[in-house]
Design brief:
Strands 2-1-5-4-3 form a five-stranded antiparallel β-sheet. It contains ten helices and twelve strands. It has three domains: 152 residues, no CATH class; 85 residues, Helix Hairpins (Orthogonal Bundle); 148 residues, 2-Layer Sandwich (Heat Shock Protein 90). The chain is of the alpha+beta class and 439 residues long. It starts with 5 loop residues before the first helix and ends with a strand.
């Protein structure tokens, strides 16, 4: 977790707030206990003063300490000591107002002093404050420990509370990640959403509705344009073929018509692929899944390319474990493998081999088409599967590519709930893996 994490911020806020509140409360308690102890000491000295003065007036006089922790000294009018206890500290003449308190000494020798008038002299009482100081020190240590433990506990509780409080956001994020162009009809659930997040969820659902509408219109436009273009392209192709059949054409006109016919063939292939993409990306598209023999699927996928591979000087090979079954739509999977084989043959050098293999892992069936061509530069790998993308921008359309082959493969794989992985290294070739769920 980083500093920008809400969990970290909330946990730190919990700990800091607790530190401030408990610290302020601890300071208040410490000062309150200090005042209470001082007042108790003053009360003890007042009681001792009253008792000493009462006994001094009696015939027996006084002896020893009357109050534990209190010492006294009696002085006559000239300041001479009449009587004192052994523990009475030395005091300078203060001339304090009778009945007043003051403190003398520092640290361990600190005493609270009370002076009272007696006849023409004075009575001085002293109370040792070391027991109170020790109690305060112990109390202070307890407060420090409590402050530290409470702050740590607050941080832990804040971390747990923040994580629990942000669970609805994580749940919404999981729902949002599950929405793809193929599932734009899905919406974020409002049932278990906290009241504070409902406006956000409602706004996101409205945005998804607008996006679904725009995406549907775009897909419809793509299909409509392809339909509209197919007829004039076919007409132009028929007319070009008719003109080429004439034997009285000048050579330059014949070359121009040949080039135009080649371009029309390319446009026809592109329009066909655009219509195919529009059909399989329609939300109403339905898969006809069946258990297919991997061996038969690969063999039937290679057959249409035997002549093309022979012309290109490329060998074809297929390998699949006997009895291996693949769950999927036979027509769509064959189309996906066709596109990958076509790419591989066009990119493979003469004398090399294009291989088609199949195998399975515990939960995945893998179809792999590999070539020994020039490979795909690293800069283009992240964009593979985008429409009209070519890994080599300088490649001419004369190779027959439309830039829609991998986009069709990606759409077919997505429709099956699978994944397309491209592994390529320049100049060692490319492996295209179709990963399909086994169930």
């Amino acid at each position: 977790m980083t500093r920008n994490s809400l969990v970290v911020r909330l946990s730190a806020s919990f700990a800091l707030t607790t530190l401030v509140l408990v610290g302020a409360g601890s300071l208040y308690l410490y000062r309150s206990l200090s005042l209470i102890l001082m007042r108790e000491g003053e009360d003890d000295l007042r009681r001792a003063s009253t008792e000493i003065l009462r006994r001094m007036e009696g015939p027996a006089g006084i002896s020893g300490n009357l109050v534990e922790g209190c010492e006294f000294r009696v002085l006559d009018g000239s300041g001479r000591v009449v009587q004192q206890t052994p523990g009475m500290p030395d005091l300078e003449a203060r001339g304090a107002k009778p009945g007043s308190f003051f403190l003398v000494g520092e640290g361990d020798s600190r005493h609270m002093i009370l002076e009272s008038g007696w006849r023409s002299g004075r009575l001085q009482l002293a109370r040792d404050l070391r027991p109170e100081a020790r109690r305060l020190n112990r109390f202070r240590d307890v407060l420090w420990a409590t402050l530290g433990l409470t702050s740590v506990a607050a941080a832990i509780v804040g971390l747990w509370t923040s994580r629990r409080g942000l669970l609805p956001l994580r749940h919404l994020a999981r729902q949002a990640r599950a929405i793809h162009p193929e599932s734009l009809g899905n919406r974020l659930h409002l049932e278990e959403t906290p009241e504070e997040l409902r406006p956000l969820v409602d706004a996101l659902n409205r945005s998804l509705s607008r996006l679904e509408t725009a995406f549907s219109r775009l897909a419809a436009l793509n299909a409509d344009m392809a339909h509209e273009l197919r007829t004039p392209v076919h007409s132009l192709k028929v007319e070009a073929e008719r003109l080429l059949s004439r034997r009285d054409l000048p050579p330059d006109v014949e070359d121009g018509l040949s080039g135009m016919l080649e371009t029309l063939d390319h446009m026809g292939a592109m329009i066909g692929q655009m219509l195919f993409l529009a059909r399989i990306e329609d939300p109403r598209a339905v898969l006809v899944k069946a258990r297919l023999s991997a061996e038969d699927l690969l063999r039937s996928a290679l057959e249409p390319f035997e002549l093309l591979a022979e012309e290109a000087g490329v060998q074809l090979s297929a390998a699949a474990p006997e009895g291996l079954g693949i769950l999927g739509d036979a027509t769509l999977l064959r189309r996906a493998i066709h596109n990958l084989i076509d790419n591989a043959i066009r990119h493979a050098p003469e004398g090399s081999t294009v291989s088609v293999r199949a195998w399975e892992s515990p939960d995945t069936s893998i179809l792999c088409v590999g070539d020994q061509g020039e490979g795909i530069p690293e800069v283009h790998k992240q964009n593979l599967g985008q429409r009209f993308l070519r890994s080599d921008p300088s490649r001419s359309r004369g190779t027959g590519g439309t830039g829609l082959g991998l986009a069709i493969v990606q759409s077919i794989v997505n429709l099956h709930g699978g994944k397309l992985e491209i592994q390529s290294a320049v100049p060692r070739g490319t492996l295209a893996n179709i990963l399909l769920p086994r169930t």
